[in-house]
Design goal:
With 90 residues, the chain is mainly α. 66% of the residues lie in helices and 0% in strands. The chain is built from four helices and no strands. Helix 1 packs antiparallel against helix 3. The chain is elongated.
């Protein structure tokens, strides 16, 4: 039987997955193309701010609640949809 991760590890896994999937290190010229739908640059800034905040909380031994993980996951899912519309993720 596979054990579910504890909230701290679940949040760390979510943060790592998002950091590996989203194009945070792309130059602005590649992010802001000719057809811009939903401003991917601003979407990435919002997600990066949330991820940095949670990384800081985790480093200060603050345990996330299930609702915190769910909200961050939902935000990332919606932003990913916007990034996909702009061709920045596959």
């Amino acid at each position: 039987m596979i054990r579910k991760p504890d909230p701290v590890n679940a949040m760390r896994n979510l943060i790592n997955d998002v950091r590996n999937d989203f194009p945070f290190n792309e130059p602005d010229a590649n992010i802001c193309g000719i057809s811009c739908t939903g401003c991917p640059k601003k979407l990435l800034e919002i997600v990066d701010t949330e991820l940095c905040e949670w990384e800081m909380h985790l480093n200060n031994d603050i345990t996330p609640k299930l609702g915190d993980i769910s909200r961050l996951g939902k935000l990332c899912k919606n932003v990913r949809r916007g990034l996909k519309r702009n061709g920045l993720v596959s």
